Amino acid sequence: MDEVHTTKVVLLGRTGSGKTSLIVRYISSVFSENVKPTIGAAFSKKTVQLIHGEERKQVVLAIWDTAGDERYESMAPLYYRNSSAAIICFDLADRQSYNKVDFWVKELVEKVEQNCKLYICGTKTDLLAEYGGPLKRAVGPTEVMAYAKKLNAKFVETSSKSNYGIDDLFKLVAADFAGFTLCEAPPIEDSLRLQEPNQTDVNEKSSCCF
Amino acid sequence: RDRAAIVAKYDKGREEGAEIDPWEDADFFVYKVTDRYGFLHKEPLPKRTELEAKALLIERSREIKWLKMLKNWDKSLLSDKLRNRVYKGIPNSLRSQAWSQILRLDKIKLNKEGFYDQAKLLARRTSPDIRQIDLDVNRTYRNHIMFRDRYGIKQQALFHVLATYSMYNTEVGYCQGMSGIAALLLMYFNEEDAFWALSCLLSDRMHGMHGLFKPGFPKLLRLQEHHEKICKKLLTKLHKHLKKIEVDARIYSMKWFLQCFLDRLPFSLTLRVWDAFIFDGDRVPIAMAFLVIKLYKKQLSKMSFDEAMSHLQTMENHNFNDDEIMEMLQATMLELRRNGLDHPGPSQ
């Protein structure tokens, strides 16, 4: 039997930053045109299999999606309590959305007692001019990277529409949790390989919201 | 002779053997994927089952009774039959009239002529919630034929109802969750009536959704606390188990109370619960929340946190139809009343 670990991951970020779409893409492998505003929070989970040489580990990610509406911020502690990772999302084309990241970082640093790894996630790359989209990048990557470095956080960019960077983000979260180091170079035979559970694991995925 | 042939065709209707040219029957895809409530599905809908056909027939026969009741509304209000008929389901074709009468929209609108339009103009210029409302209109019931088209007529109405309300009730303003409720009302009301109905649900004593949405959600917290109290008293063992696996009412019941089970039940049942909610107010979601836990008592008592959470969301794997659930809901309301738990009482 592989070792199985469960870890709690929370998504935070300004309203409309794409938190729900990110999770729907990751859990159901689709880009949904019909994502509703999240009321309160939503729970879903997925198993990631990590393989490193002889070593195999399974990490179950218990993922909490939260509401972006500022009024629900008072509820957030219910969801980030005991989280080992927080993914703070912002819309790459929206400066205000980026400005909200710091709010969440400060809240987590101040209120979370356990060790909670921070991931800063710029969303909607498909909308950026550099990827053929209509919008301009509102925050330069160097600025975000410098900020992330200061916090000892990791910075990733994703597109739920084109499925860019999504799996990698959650694999990274799982690997960090399990103490695996991700290999930057393309995987070679005995270096770290990360793979998704195949179809037989379908019933291990579930998603819901409250 | 022509006349006789034409009349005969109408007598025969669409029964088997009827002669209908294909060109006479519009064959648009949208007809086949739209359900009776206006939701669009990916695949053409399956043919009506016998059970569904029978339910529709019963609904038709109820329409006649409802028309009579609506005509003599003041007398109907005094009758014992009304509540039972509400719980048996208001015929969908008369839902707008019935909801409007139950909420007394005509009374509320008295002497308010032109008010909505003026308030709307003001809101367009000054509502501080425009951005959030815009964001949410763009993602509210986009799978419904009324809200499908970006900036379509009903999206315009939804935008304006919410913006106007945000200025009308500045303590609540706009809060995520209200767009779904306003959209549901717009499925049955025109823009102005939807506004007054929303206002009614938030501010009247029976529904009091104001406290659900205002900053800090005081009423939500009160209802959740009350729900815990009910479970602790009437389902003590299960309540202990849920506590142990850390399944907290504050987490699973939020959407139940904030939107009275919108999106948490099949839409046909949601409407039935909303019929009851509009008629009886708060006591309905309180009883419904307890009923859900009761329904899944067995399963929940063996579940882990993850399983319980998923289960309480999808609410599948029970063998009851809408009618049976509504009967159980009524029985649960009585049970709670007998135990003095049907309502947490007024806020302090």
Automatic annotation (TrEMBL), chain A:
Belongs to the small GTPase superfamily. Rab family. GO terms for molecular function: GTP binding; GTPase activity. One of its GO terms (biological process) is intracellular protein transport. The lineage of its organism: Eukaryota, Metazoa, Placozoa, Uniplacotomia, Trichoplacea. This is Ras-related protein Rab-24. It comes from the Eukaryota. CDD domains: Rab. Keywords: Nucleotide-binding. InterPro entries: P-loop_NTPase, Small_GTP-bd, Small_GTPase. The keyword Nucleotide-binding applies.
TrEMBL record, chain B:
Keywords: Acetylation, Cytoplasmic vesicle, Golgi apparatus, GTPase activation, Phosphoprotein. GO terms for molecular function: GTPase activator activity. SMART domains: TBC (SM00164). It is found in: Cytoplasmic vesicle; Golgi apparatus. It comes from the Eukaryota. PANTHER family: RAB GTPASE-ACTIVATING PROTEIN 1-LIKE, USP6 N-TERMINAL-LIKE PROTEIN ISOFORM X1. Acts as a GTPase-activating protein for RAB5A and RAB43. Involved in receptor trafficking. In complex with EPS8 inhibits internalization of EGFR. Involved in retrograde transport from the endocytic pathway to the Golgi apparatus. Involved in the transport of Shiga toxin from early and recycling endosomes to the trans-Golgi network. Required for structural integrity of the Golgi complex. This is USP6 N-terminal-like protein.
